[in-house]
Structures are given as structure tokens and as C-alpha cells.
Amino acid sequence: MAAVVVAAGRGIRVGGDTPKQYRRVGGQAVLTRTLAALAAHPGITRIQVVIAPDAAAFYDECLDDLPPAAQAKLARPTEGGATRQASVRAGLAALAREAAPDLVLVHDAARPFVDAGLIDRAIATAQSHGAAVPGVPVSDTIKVVEPDGRVRETPKREDLRAVQTPQAFRFALLHEAHGRAAAEGHDGFTDDGALAEWAGLPVAVFPGDLRNRKITQAADLVEADRAFTSPSESEPAMTLLTRLGTGFDVHAFTEGDHVWLGGVRIPADRGVLAHSDGDVVLHALTDAILGALADGDIGVHFPPSDPRWRGASSDQFLADAVRRVAERGGVIDHLDITVLAEAPRIGAHREAIRTRIAEIAGVPLSAVSIKATTTEKLGFVGRAEGLAAQAAATIRLPEARA
Ligand SMILES: Nc1ccn([C@@H]2O[C@H](COP(=O)(O)OP(=O)(O)OP(=O)(O)O)[C@@H](O)[C@H]2O)c(=O)n1
Ligand SMILES: C[C@](O)(CO)[C@H](O)COP(=O)(O)O
């Protein structure tokens, strides 16, 4: 897959003579750090940087600190336009002139904190949805304000996400949408997600990363310099700590012709007795993530006594637990599940289940494992009275240094 890195801005809000993407943080230019992070990802094979017409010398200087393996992935830089949208369009056109990739990632040069986990999630979500943007919950209450300063509306904060880059798309879809927007005179879209929405494409939001800040104001540059300065010189205030959570769930069989496992409907001789859709895999996974967060269990957040959850599709329980991880500034590293059942056999459905869980959790397929076992005819599973699932979730959460 290819990446377009937009670096043609002037950095007016940061101030100073040198645009922010060429300023040094922890001894290297912001753009060098951004390119090094993207190039280190094995899924990214070509990087198209977009620079201002007068920035060739700045750009060349950035390459000095870039490892040869990273430089090998760089296409010749191309010239940007007066707006971010125009610069992205120029980057896409340059890629199309060579060989159009299947997927494209669009990233701000001014976001040097991008990491492999975020790129993995962008790729996984674009592969399944076509258009994908990373979002993080907002901490402030957001107002929609009239031109005269009066508040028009206060959207519900739980529904809001602050959107970052990298944003990932099927190349053909984004390229066509950019061409159409320009032809119709639109040049003010502040991100490619908004342009894709305008073009009528469904855009999926996957968990972003609170650390992936955009350098926008002078204070952000100071903060980035501190963060990239080696820990021996300056201890970072926060570090990510790994946590493991486990979950377990059981449902009894009853009359029926299917069961739900991992968000996939599987034909079976029996159904399960449950208040919701009885998906033991998603319930165990939800509890595993809540366990890693030390945030209660599925019954606390979705009480069986609440009629809203009668017959509910369990993907929303897992999605809620995933949202809680993002809200705490965390990331999900791995999900591992074991189904305990005499029947149905899950072998034929394994990949569909992994794919669905990866979609709901916004993680790459390689971060989801599903296994199954019978219990050698022992116990309630062995007597085919019901089925069960156990799960483990590994996540990382920011912890303040003591
Ligand atoms: N005409 C433009 C404007 C912006 N960008 C890039 O888009 C990203 C996000 O934009 P922003 O942070 O707003 O950068 P600037 O436009 O440089 O900042 P300012 O608005 O403060 O001038 C940056 O990497 C910037 O270089 C670009 O390639 N071409
Ligand atoms: C693309 C973006 O980074 C998503 O948050 C943002 O919209 C860029 O806006 P800017 O005004 O160009 O900084």
C-alpha cells in the first residue's frame, strides 16, 4: 500500500520562519520522524510526500537523518497546492501517474507520533470498509456556535470523535472523489474523511491514539521536542502499561436452528437461551476487555433486566468495551478466544469470526485468535446442554509515572 504525506503547509499557527514540518524535535525534523515511522511499517511500500514549491532544500535536509531503507520507499516529492485538500489531490495524482495502489493512507506531516498499531488499524478498517478515519473521544464539551457568538447546539459528547490521520481509503474511491470535489469547485475539506462523506462514501471510524497529536501551535512543538528527547534527559510523564483481562460466558441450548458466535450466524441443530443474541464469544471478549480495564463486567454495563438489550446484537457490547479502551487513551494489542462446544464445529467459520471480531474491535486480523475444543463428553458441554467461551484480551493503557 502507498502513503501520501502532506507537507506543503506554511505552519502559520506555529509561527517562525521555518515551516513546522521542518523544525527539529528531539534533534530531528518533524517530517523526518513522520516519514521514518511510516516507512518502518512493512505494509507501506511507497511514500509520496507533497511539499511546497519553494521547500526542496528543506526537504532534502530531512533526508539526511532518514535511514536508507526508509529513503528507498520515497517517491520523488511532488508540489502541493494552496489548501490541504489540493495538496492531497496532488499526492494522489502523482501516485496514479506511476502505478495506482489498491489502498492509500493519507497522513499529515505534522503528526510525527504515528505508530505501527495505528497504521495496522487504519489498514484493517480500510480493507473491510473502504474508507477509514481514526477517532478519539473528546474531553471538552463542544458547542456549535452562530456567527454572532450565540450557541446554536451542544451535540452529545459521547457521539463525538476528534479525527486524526492516518486516514485510509481504497485508492480508486478517494482519487475519484477528490477529482469530483475539485471539478465541482469544493476546495475546503479539512480532512479526506469529510470529502469522502461528501462523495457519498460510508466512512468508518476506528480507534485513534491520544498520543498522535498534530503539531499545530508553538506549544505543541515544545511538547513534541520534550517527548522525543531521550528519556535519560527528560522522563516522559506517561508510559503505556500492558494489562491482561479474561472473560468467560455460558449459554444453555434450547430449540432453534442457529447460534451466534463472534458476530457470525452459524447454522446449528439448536439455538441458545439468552436475553440478547447469546453470543458467548462476544460476551467473553467484552468481559475480557472490561477486565483489563478493571471496569466491571458486561452485566454492569448492559443489565439483563434492561429491555433495551432483549435480543440485542452483541457486537454493540464489544464495541462499547473497545470505545472504553480508546476513551482511556489505550490500545488493544491482542484478543484470544477458546470456544468450548461439542457442536457446532467452528472450523469452517473460523476466518469469518476472526474477520468480524477484527472489524468490531478495529484491530488487524493478526491480533485475533479463535480456537475451539470439545470437553471429551464431560460436564455440561460434553452432555451438549450448552456451550461456553473463554477469552483473554491484552491491552495497553497510559499510566502516570509514580
Ligand atoms: N496547503 C496545504 C496546507 C496544509 N498541508 C499539510 O496538511 C497538514 C495539516 O495541516 P496544518 O496542520 O493546518 O498545517 P499548516 O497548514 O502548515 O498550518 P497552519 O494552518 O497553521 O498554517 C500539515 O502536515 C500541512 O503541511 C499541505 O500539505 N498543504
Ligand atoms: C486532517 C486533520 O488532521 C484531521 O484532524 C485535520 O483536519 C487537518 O486540519 P488542518 O487545519 O489542516 O490542521
Main sheet: strands, sense, barrel: 8 strands, mixed
- What compounds sit in this structure? cytidine-5'-triphosphate, ligand LQXTBERG
CATH topology of the largest domain: Spore Coat Polysaccharide Biosynthesis Protein SpsA, Chain A
Proportion of residues in β-strands: 25-35%
Task: Put the structure in a nutshell.
With 402 residues, the chain is an alpha/beta fold. It is 32% helix and 26% strand. It is elongated, with a radius of gyration of 24 Å.
Question: How would you characterize this protein structure?
Answer:
- There is one protein chain.
- With 402 residues, the chain is an alpha/beta fold.
- The protein folds into two domains: 2-228, Spore Coat Polysaccharide Biosynthesis Protein SpsA, Chain A (Alpha-Beta Complex), CATH 3.90.550; 238-400, 2-C-methyl-D-erythritol 2,4-cyclodiphosphate synthase (60s Ribosomal Protein L30, Chain: A), CATH 3.30.1330.
- The chain is built from 13 helices and 19 strands.
- The chain has helices at residues 30-39, 56-63, 68-71, 84-98, 116-129, 171-183, 192-198, 218-228, 280-293, 298-301, 315-327, 350-361, 379-382; strands spanning 2-7, 24-25, 28-29, 46-51, 78-79, 103-108, 131-137, 144-145, 151-153, 161-163, 167-170, 204-207, 238-254, 258-261, 264-267, 271-272, 331-340, 368-373, 386-400.
- Strands 1, 4, 5, 6, 7, 10, 11 and 12 form an eight-stranded mixed beta sheet that branches. Strands 16-13-19-17-18 form a five-stranded mixed beta sheet.
- A hairpin with a 2-residue loop joins strand 2 (24-25) and strand 3 (28-29).
- Helix 6 (171-183) packs across helix 7 (192-198) and helix 9 (280-293) packs parallel to helix 11 (315-327).
- The two termini are 41 Å apart.
- The mean pLDDT is 93.
- Bound molecules: cytidine-5'-triphosphate and ligand LQXTBERG.
